[in-house]
Design brief:
Radius of gyration of chain B: 22 Å
CATH class of one domain in chain A: Mainly Alpha
Helix content of chain A: over 70%
Largest sheet of chain A: none
Number of helices of chain A: 8
CATH superfamily of one domain in chain A: MetI-like
Shape of chain B: elongated
Number of helices of chain B: 10
CATH superfamily of the largest domain in chain B: Periplasmic binding protein-like II
Helix content of chain B: 25-40%
CATH class of the largest domain in chain B: Alpha Beta
Largest interface: A-B, 29 and 26 residues
CATH topology of the largest domain in chain B: D-Maltodextrin-Binding Protein, domain 2
Largest sheet of chain B: 10 strands, mixed
Structural class of chain B: alpha/beta
CATH architecture of the largest domain in chain B: 3-Layer(aba) Sandwich
Number of strands of chain B: 12
Order of helices and strands of chain B: HEEEHEHEEEEHHEHEHEEHHH
Strand content of chain B: 15-25%
Distance between the termini of chain B: 68 Å
Oligomer: heterodimer
Number of strands of chain A: 0
CATH architecture of one domain in chain A: Orthogonal Bundle
Chain lengths: ~220, ~260
């Protein structure tokens, strides 16, 4: 197999990796905020359940969670899992990352001094106005470095999709390496992950700079 | 309440109707295999899914006019996949020996032998020479099972300095090249595949053990198993089996049907 053939075969996997990455972010970034708010709910039951959810998501291996999401519907309910491979991957990744993002958001929200809430109340802001206009913009600024960290981890975690034999770049690297008895596919995969993360770093750096409007 | 009942009834009828319609559609044969296992199932030089087992499964589908669907899976999850019905069989250089009662088996279509692969200048000539040496093997392979089986070669394994267990033979072979291990315990067809185009390696004359490959089905899937068996025999008769086999010189001599 020529190098260019190897690369073009793997590039299909790169797109699939990108698909998992982009859709996971699209789902988990907003969902994380919902989870963070539920985690701070007035109702003890909701708080408790959210806490348990986060605890399970962070406390068990993502690889195991992916297996449960894919095979669970059959082994628990006897449902057919045809066509469920990719959707189950997304469910697994999104819920897992939402749990991590939720805790990052919560840290950000709790870092805002109580005085600001009091001041907003005095100025006549409603609760939702206070959150949307005063608290959230500051939170976003504070949490950017942690979010970048998590996004970079996600790029590499997409390789866990090999558990469900989804043909992303790492699965393909393993398979081509076996058939070509060569390490080149792993080198290509490594360069791919590095370049992808370099772009993430660069992009997130730009966003951080744009948000840094008081300096 | 009556309305709800009627709705449910209609829904059931629709479902039944759809089920009976789809039963008349072409059967989709879901071939479950590991893409890491050349030359039985792997990604070929053109980047396509290929291999002896893949070509044979496609030939069986052509024989019956079935639709072929490739279901590559992660080898460690093969039983989960088979039992959940995401594939209809495990057809991927799958060893019967030691698993006789775990699956419903087709007729065996290929023999295989576990061997020891060494560098030609290593000075290792017999199994006894392996005493005090480092031996590599791939995890969840029959060579691995054999070396850990008290009734197999566990005694021999105890004479090794250590047994290194690898994720893939590709990495293990690289360690043999680099001298990090002295020998590999490997089945002969995988070994032939790794050694093709290289002249510095050889098998010891003594065999570790032998095994047979067949297709594994769910235990209650007798009907499908029988159909596949019939098709395999028909493909041996009309020469397709031999023709496909000739494309894979590493395993051709070990194909056991019709001999």
């Amino acid at each position: 197999m020529t190098f260019s053939k190897m690369f073009s075969t793997m590039s299909a996997g790169m797109w699939r990796t990108f698909g998992i990455f982009a859709l996971t972010l699209l789902g988990s970034l907003p969902l994380g905020m919902v989870v963070a708010l539920l985690r701070k709910s007035r109702f003890a039951v909701v708080r408790g359940l959210t806490r348990a959810f986060i605890s399970v998501m962070r406390g068990t291996p993502l690889m195991l969670q992916l297996l449960v999401w894919y095979f669970g519907p059959y082994y628990l309910f006897g449902w057919s899992i045809r066509g469920w491979r990719f959707p189950s991957l997304l469910v697994g990744f999104i819920l897992n990352y939402a749990a991590y993002f939720a805790e990052i958001y919560r840290g950000g929200i709790e870092s805002i001094p109580v005085g600001q809430y009091e001041a907003a109340e005095v100025l006549g802001y409603s609760k939702s106005q206070t959150f949307m206009r005063i608290i959230l913009p500051q939170v976003i600024k504070h949490i950017m470095p942690s979010v970048t960290n998590e996004v970079i981890t996600l790029v590499k975690d997409t390789s866990l999709a090999f558990t469900l034999a989804y043909q992303e770049v790492f699965s393909l690297a393993k398979q081509i390496s076996a058939s070509q008895t060569s390490f080149m596919p792993f080198v290509i995969a490594g360069v791919f992950y590095f370049v992808a993360n370099y772009i993430v770093e660069f992009g997130m750096g730009r966003i951080e700079k744009a948000l840094d409007y008081y300096r | 309440m009556k309305k709800l009942f009627l709705m449910l009834l209609t829904l059931t009828m629709v479902v039944v109707l759809f089920a009976s319609v789809s039963a008349e559609e072409t059967f989709v044969f879901k071939h479950g295999f590991d893409l890491d296992y050349p030359p039985y199932s792997y990604i070929d030089d053109n980047g396509e899914t290929n291999g002896f087992d893949v070509e044979m499964a496609k030939a069986v589908c052509d024989y019956y006019g079935w639709e072929y669907e490739a279901v590559p899976f992660n080898w460690d999850a093969k039983d989960l996949e088979l039992n959940a019905g995401s594939c209809d069989c495990i057809w991927s250089g799958f060893t019967i020996n030691g698993r006789e009662d775990d699956y419903l088996w087709s007729i065996p279509y290929s023999d295989n032998t576990q061997m020891i692969m060494v560098k030609k200048d290593s000075g290792i000539e017999t199994l006894a020479d392996l005493a005090g040496k480092v031996v590599g093997v791939q995890t969840s392979t029959s060579a691995y099972d054999l070396l850990n089986d008290e009734e197999g070669q566990a005694e021999l394994c105890k004479t090794f300095k250590s047994l290194e267990v690898y994720e893939t033979y590709t990495i293990a072979f690289n360690d043999l090249k680099a001298g990090a291990v002295d020998a590999l315990a490997i089945d002969v067809t995988s070994g032939n595949f790794l050694m093709s185009g290289q002249t510095d390696y050889e098998f010891l004359d003594e065999e570790l053990g032998s095994e047979q490959y067949a297709i594994g089905f769910r235990k209650d899937d007798t009907e499908l198993r029988d159909k596949i068996n019939d098709a395999l025999m028909a493909l041996v008769e009309d020469g397709t089996y031999d023709k496909i086999g000739q494309k894979y010189p590493e395993i051709y001599d070990y194909l056991s049907l019709g001999k």
